[in-house]
Structures
1.
Amino acid sequence: MAAENHPSPTYFILLLITITRLISTVGKTSQWKTMLPPELVSAEDNNNNNNNVFQKLRDDPEALERVSRDYGNLVHDVPVAVLQPATGQDIARLIKASYNSSVPFRIAARGQGHSTRGQAMVRDGVVVDMAAFRERGNGVGIKVSVDPLVGDYYADVGGEQLWFDVLHSTLLHGLAPRSWTDYLYLTVGGTLSNAGISGQTFRYGPQITSVREMDVITGKGEFVTCSSQTNSELFHAVLGGLGQFGIITRARIALAPAPKRVKWVRLLYNDFSAFTKDQEQLISISGRKQNIALDYLEGLLLMHQGPINNWRSSFFPLADHARIISLVTKHSVLYCLEVAKYYDAQNENNVDKDLQVLLQGLSYIPGFYYEKDVSYVEFLNRVRSGELKLQSQGLWDVPHPWLNLFIPKSQIMDFDSAIFKNIILKRNITTGPVLVYPMNRNKWDNRMSASIPDEEIFYTVGFLHSSGFDDWKAYDAQNKEILQFCNDAGIKVKQYLPHYRTQEDWTNHFGPKWRTFVERKHQFDPRMILSPGQRIFNN
Ligand code: FAD
């Protein structure tokens, strides 16, 4: 297991020593040559042609530094080299070389490195830099098409592409995917390796369910096209598969006509039971053809120790801040229901009425109803402006000790009283966003690797902490207390974007799917080469 190094002064001194050593190596012999299997190095020396992937490896400090940290800023694992591929063939050659070697070296694709616990890192192995592939490579890009047989729209998208670019390219055709993440500067391959969830999931499923076909390079270095009909075992393994079975180089994503605008509403509650009852009632209207249904539903906590607007979205009008703050002070915790209804020219005249019908009878605090009318792009890209603001203040690249959980509906009330109203309030350190919203299990596909609770409705709770470099351990201690409490109280939580330390934890996480997960690993990555940063098979 990699050490979770707090980026303390000692860390920076060590980093400096490492970098200095590396600088002194460059120009003499590449560091990877001393660390990768000898037969590969001699192959590289003897085979100086364009197909030689080892000529495309970088081990200069800049390339190594870029891939040895992530958004979490808690784990720092330095690889021996970075592949900046020009083609998918480069990736396949690298994996094949490892697979055929007497001592295989480990390889991880790195999307944007927006993981928080080193999941895309690989100590002493090779990182495939998918961002470099996107910027300089020759991948499939983003191509919109129509299936002539059924008239379905879809986009073929490189695994290295950002969802933001997928949105813009598909909108040029008046189309868009239906299921999103809250933040769009994530890669297609990275979110499909987890699930890809947001307020649309209750109705349209996680992003993994909008995939129709993929090109995957397996842990044997083989290119395989797969779908739920062809090579279905690999297809289902890879979706939610935490990078364990292959590197996604193309995903075919289903598209639908894109709306133009969005009615975006927030309602405040002081009673968790009323809040969740209303959330569950609203997500029960979830048929794709139910025009009256909401298009998006989430929820978040407002607490006296944090600002009422945060980097994820600035929503409440300034004029109302004082009265919301005084309500938060009175109750300690408020719950904010957040919903959206899309519209365009065709249903422009009905959208207000439809929304009114949906929201009538809800038990929010009278007078605490807020509404905005924004463009579809502004809505989907709502987190970006907060990111840019934090970046300009130097507050984006700080530690992020996040904890994301799935909780069965039957235990969400216990979670509220023990965690939100007890642990969180007592510790008094949570100031960042805490998300709480339900999803329908029937919108997920149980054949895929993603692991979710057994109940028909389950909640996601995301503690999206930002901390200073000196106090991240306090947040980690809180995360541990939450997990320990759930364990002791029998609250059957599963982590989303999981980070477990023992084989037993992983076995519990996957539950009945664990055997299949292991069998698929032996089938598609038998030499345990891929995504070791997840720490599933190499604990
Ligand atoms: P990375 O972190 O680089 O990689 C994640 C894993 O996938 C690694 O194991 C890596 O080896 C593997 N991988 C990467 N590319 C490929 C590929 N092409 N083929 C196979 N395996 C690959 N998630 C949500 O679901 N919903 C959200 O609303 C959401 N919001 C977020 C907001 C922010 C600000 C951040 C930082 C993250 C958010 N996430 C959200 C989490 C995000 O989905 C994960 O971080 C995810 O890993 C995608 O990030 P990435 O593309 O940078 O992948």
Note: The chain is about 35% helix and 20% strand.
2.
Amino acid sequence: MPNLYFLISGFFCSILIVILFFTKERVKTKETKIYGFMILSSLIDIILVMVELLICYFNYTEFTKMIVHILNKIDLIHYILWVNLLLLYIYFISFGGTKKYDKLKTYTLSLDILFILIEFLLPLNIINTDGTMGITGAAPTFVYLVALIYLIVIILIMIKNIKKIFTKKYIPLTVLIAFMIVAAFVRAVNPTLIIIPSIIAYINLIMFNTIENPDVKMIEELNMARDRADKANQAKTEFLSNMSHEIRTPLNAIVGFSNSLIEDSNDKEKITEDAKYIVKASQNLLELVNGILDISKIEAGKIEIINTEYEISEVLDNLIALSKARLGEKPIEFRTSFDESLPKYLYGDASRLKQICINLLTNSIKYTKEGFIEFKVSSVIKDDICRLIISVEDSGIGIKNEDIDKLFEKFGRLDLEKNISIEGSGLGLAITKKLVNMMNGKIVVQSEYGIGSKFTISIDQKITKGNLNKNDHKEQIEVLEFPNKKILIIDDNKLNLKVAEKVLQPFKVIITTASSGDEGIEKIINENFDLVLLDDMMPGKTGTDTLKELKENLADYKTPTVALTANAIVGMKEKYLAAGFDDYIAKPIEKEELKRILNKYLK
Ligand code: ADP
């Protein structure tokens, strides 16, 4: 009966763990779930083996022999599943729930089905001498062999993670593997000594007391959550201090040069020069704000890749024109080299592709004093997919080896003692990398400090036949003038009204302004307008409320009304369209966007 005593102690041990584990509040991680399965299956196994033993001892007939046979087979299946669960458990705590983990789970569980089938077909002998049960034959040998293979895989995983071997999670696991090897050895030498189910129960107990105790896990989880919160907080603080610096730099220029304009307004040449500085600093500021919006949109998962058909040559021409304009008078040779085999029409997100290239080209222009910049586009075509390989090489300042890893970090501005006079936010490459990833592409950097850098991206685009509607493009290029068309601008901020009037001036429209929702409504009642540009965030009546009132009170209110607002965060456009606005334009007003609006509503 020593077998039964072993089992009884294993049974109480298992039942205790099951009760403690399942009655406590647990963190719901995958590893804990696996552990739950492990202890349940172990308890069921012990009960089965105890039933087998009792039958052998008290009532061993031809009929009950068959039952013992079946129970033993189930028992063996349990070993296969338990070792597999242990393998998954150890893999998960070693490498986390990656795709490889999912693959391993699928493969091993499918293999288990095969093993179980084989195990059922193989012969099994039951030894029963005076109630001392044991099993021999091909079935148990096969199962021990499978368990041994799993064990070897487990040991290999642990060796691969040798650095973790002395961590809290690995110590008990190492002990229990040793335990298992001893138990398997004892079992092989003496098949009538049934110790494996109890050993498994003790292993479960060791795991419970060390790494799977729900209370301990809960504390661990809380600590991790606190660490995450601390890190997020630190990132926020860093972000704010960075922002404060980055925003103040262009603002300093704007305020300084504007003051100088006021103080000394006689020298025309100086006025033009100061105004140019102001425009440049403003553009930097706008670029910074757009960058922040872009990166926060990407990080919030709010940027989508919108695929349409486009003509690659148009994109490239555009990029060349833009780069040449940015190069200005710099003594840099701008070389281009485009593969002849580039397909004419591609299907993908042309505007994001352009944004990626602009970022790389702008950087090469910024960080190169003289020499050359080479913009190269080649392609590898397979079936209907064209892999675009785009590189931007320069003979600029280059990047130190140790800085390459920091390139794609947010606000990662490098080599500041050299770059201090070059404007930048450190966001361009972070955005570029994120966009390339979103388009399932790759980006690599080669650089030699003091010699130059080369950024290469590869992105797959579909090849299409070309059904582009050329008329869409024509409309945008047209020079617009709309004499006699009447526009009402409603904005509480006088400065904004002035700016809007100024940017609308070249279009020869007739402008009326109102500085509140109520004033706007009054003007609309008394006069017909062709277009209303309506600010939203106004004290008293907001733009949205104003529009609502207009639509409720004037049954035939059909004047196109466009939200003109600095509220440019994620999802705002959708919000304004849902509120009944016909369109949306963000402040500061971009000329192209304004043209699009005027063209759409005043033609
Ligand atoms: P920034 O707005 O500062 O240019 P980016 O994210 O575009 O921000 O670039 C991050 C940093 O990488 C830059 O500050 C610069 O130090 C370095 N860098 C980027 N492109 C180049 C290049 N072509 N040559 C040398 N350094 C570069």
Note: The radius of gyration is 36 Å.
